[in-house]
Design a protein that fits this description.
about 475 residues; mainly alpha; two-stranded antiparallel sheet; globular; EC 3.6.3.14; transport; cell membrane; H(+)-transporting two-sector ATPase; membrane
Length: about 475
C-alpha cells in the first residue's frame, strides 16, 4: 500500500484525482475528510489498480446493504448477510451464480438493485471513475487516463473517445435488446409493464454477460425460440469481445488493415474457440436425451450454438447444465477459464492471454527468437504477463477447489465447475451453489471478486512498486523439461 500524504495545493492540477470531503476548515470532520482525500489522491497516483479494488469492494458492500433491506426480498424480514453479499458480488462482478431464486426471492426493488449493480459492474469501476472525472473536468488528466488504460489496454490518447463509446454502445445495445425481448415477453407476461421490466433486465444481463434471469420459468422455455436465443448470442458476443475491440472495428469497419493487433488477436482467437466449442458441444451432447438429444433438429442446432457461445462469458443457459455429461463439464471448464476479451464484461484469463501463450509456444516449437502475429512482434514482457495471469488464475482455481472439497462432500467435477465459473465470472452451475455451506460460499465470493478485478489488475495492486535494478546478475540457463 502506498504511504505518504502529498502536500496540499491551493488549486488541484487537471490530472489530479481530487475528492472534497471536508465540512469546514476547523472541524474534525474536515480534518478527517482532508486526510481521506489526500489518501485517495496518493493512492490514485501511485496505484490506480489498488484504488479500483477498493472502490469495487465498496460498491459490492453498498449493493449488499440495499439487498438486505426488508422490501428487497419477498420473504418476511431481511435476507441473510451471506446471501445478500453473495448475490451482490455475483451481480457487481457480472457472474450470475446465485444461492436463492432470483425470480421469486427478490422484489421489484431488489431486481432494480441487481440491474444497477450489473450495469455498473459491467462497465467496470475504473471506466466509471474516469467517466465521472470526464463529466466534472470535461477532459481526462494523466491519472485518469492511466486508470482507464489499465482496464482498456487502449492508447492513452484514445481513452476519452473510448469512454464515450462505452456509454453509447451500452445504451444502444441494451435499448435494441430490450425492444427485441419485449416482442417475445409480452406474450408470457401478465402485463406490459412486467414484460418491459423483464425485457430491460434481460437486456442488461445479456449485454453485460451477467447470467441473471428474473423469469420464473427461466430461459428453458425459449430453447427453440430464435427470437430470444439469437439476440442473446449476439449480445453476448458483443459484450465479450470488449469495448476497445468494438470501438476499433467500428472506426475502421471498411479497413481491417487498420485494426490493432489486440483487435485481430481477440476476434480471430474468439472465432476459433467459438468454432471449436460448437463442434465439441454437438459431439458431447447430441445424443444426450436430457439435453440436446431430446430436441428436434432445428432446436438442437440453436441450443448447440447457444451453449457454445455463453460458457466463456454470460453463463446464460436454455438447458440444465446439471444434466450434461461430465465430459462436457470439463470442456466448458476450459472455455470458462479462457473467458472473454480484455476490457470486456467477460472474465477468465482472457482470449488474448490465451492467444499470446499459444503463439509463444508455437514460436518456441519453430525455434523462432520472437513471438509474432499479423506481421507484428509481441514484446517479451507481454508474454511474461500472459504467463503470470495464467499461473495466478490457475493457482486461485486450484486453491479454491481444494478448500471447498475439504468443506463439502461434492465430487471434484462438481466443485471444479463451480469454482471456475466463479473465477471466470461466468455463472453457469451444476446446481450445487445453493447447497454449499456458508464457508464455501465465502470462498466463491472472494473468487468472484478476484476474478472480476482481473488477474493482471490484482497482481499490479499487490505489488508495492516496480523494482529497478542498477546491476543485472549474470545469466545462466537452467534445464527445462
Amino acid at each position: 500500500m502506498a504511504h505518504g500524504v502529498p502536500p496540499r495545493s491551493s488549486s488541484a492540477g487537471r490530472g489530479r484525482f481530487d475528492v472534497r470531503m471536508s465540512l469546514g476548515p476547523d472541524s474534525d470532520s474536515g480534518v478527517h475528510g482532508h486526510s481521506l482525500r489526500n489518501y485517495i489522491n496518493s493512492l490514485a497516483r501511485r496505484s490506480p489498480a489498488r484504488l479500483a479494488m477498493l472502490v469495487f469492494g465498496a460498491l459490492i458492500f453498498a449493493v449488499t446493504l440495499l439487498l438486505m433491506v426488508p422490501f428487497s426480498s419477498t420473504t418476511p424480514g431481511s435476507s441473510s448477510f451471506t446471501d445478500a453479499l453473495f448475490t451482490a458480488t455475483s451481480a457487481v462482478c457480472v457472474t450470475g451464480l446465485t444461492v436463492v431464486d432470483t425470480a421469486t426471492h427478490w422484489t421489484a426493488f431488489g431486481h432494480i438493485v441487481l440491474a444497477l449493480g450489473i450495469q455498473i459492474g459491467g462497465l467496470g469501476v475504473m471506466v466509471i471513475a474516469s467517466i465521472l472525472a470526464l463529466a466534472v473536468s470535461r477532459h481526462l488528466g494523466l491519472t485518469q487516463r492511466m486508470l482507464a488504460a489499465t482496464e482498456t489496454k487502449s492508447r492513452l490518447g484514445d481513452v476519452g473517445a473510448l469512454l464515450k463509446a462505452v456509454i453509447a454502445t451500452s445504451l444502444v445495445a441494451e435499448s435494441v435488446l430490450t425492444l427485441v425481448f419485449l416482442g417475445s415477453f409480452v406474450g408470457i407476461d401478465p402485463s406490459f409493464v412486467s414484460a418491459l421490466g423483464h425485457s430491460l433486465f434481460m437486456a442488461v444481463s445479456t449485454f453485460n454477460n451477467a447470467g441473471f434471469v428474473i423469469l420464473e420459468d427461466g430461459l428453458g422455455q425459449f430453447v427453440g425460440d430464435w427470437a430470444v436465443s439469437l439476440p442473446i448470442i449476439i449480445g453476448t458476443i458483443i459484450g465479450a469481445v470488449g469495448f476497445p475491440v468494438t470501438l476499433n472495428v467500428a472506426q475502421n469497419l471498411r479497413h481491417p488493415r487498420n485494426w490493432t493487433l489486440h483487435s485481430k488477436l481477440t476476434l480471430v482467437t474468439y472465432g476459433i474457440l467459438l468454432g471449436i466449442s460448437i463442434v465439441m458441444i454437438a459431439l458431447l451432447e447430441w445424443n444426450n436425451p436430457a439435453t440436446l438429444g431430446g430436441l428436434n433438429g432445428a432446436e438442437r442446432t440453436l441450443a448447440t450454438l447457444f451453449h457454445a457461445t455463453t460458457p466463456r462469458s454470460s453463463g446464460l443457459s436454455t438447458l440444465d447444465v446439471g444434466d450434461m455429461n461430465q465430459s462436457t463439464w470439463f470442456f466448458i471448464d476450459m472455455m470458462m477459464f479462457i473467458g472473454g476479451g480484455s476490457a470486456s464484461t467477460g472474465g477468465g484469463i482472457k482470449v488474448t492471454t490465451f492467444a499470446v501463450l499459444a503463439l509463444a509456444i508455437l514460436a518456441e516449437a519453430r525455434g523462432d527468437r520472437d513471438t509474432e502475429a499479423f506481421g507484428k512482434r509481441i514484446p517479451a514482457d507481454v508474454v511474461r504477463l500472459a504467463i503470470s495471469a495464467t499461473f495466478l488464475g490457475a493457482f486461485m482455481v486450484g486453491a479454491a477447489t481444494l478448500i471447498i472439497m475439504q468443506l463439502t462432500d461434492f465430487s471434484l467435477s462438481h466443485v471444479l465447475f463451480e469454482v471456475i465459473s466463479a473465477f471466470a465470472t461466468c455463472g453457469l452451475s451444476t446446481g450445487i451453489t445453493s447447497a454449499l455451506p456458508e464457508s464455501a460460499k465465502i470462498v466463491l465470493i472472494v473468487l468472484m471478486y478476484l476474478g472480476r478485478v482481473g488477474t493482471m489488475t490484482l497482481a499490479a495492486a499487490l505489488a508495492l512498486r516496480n523494482r529497478r535494478r542498477v546491476i543485472r546478475l549474470p545469466q545462466e540457463r537452467p534445464v527445462i523439461g
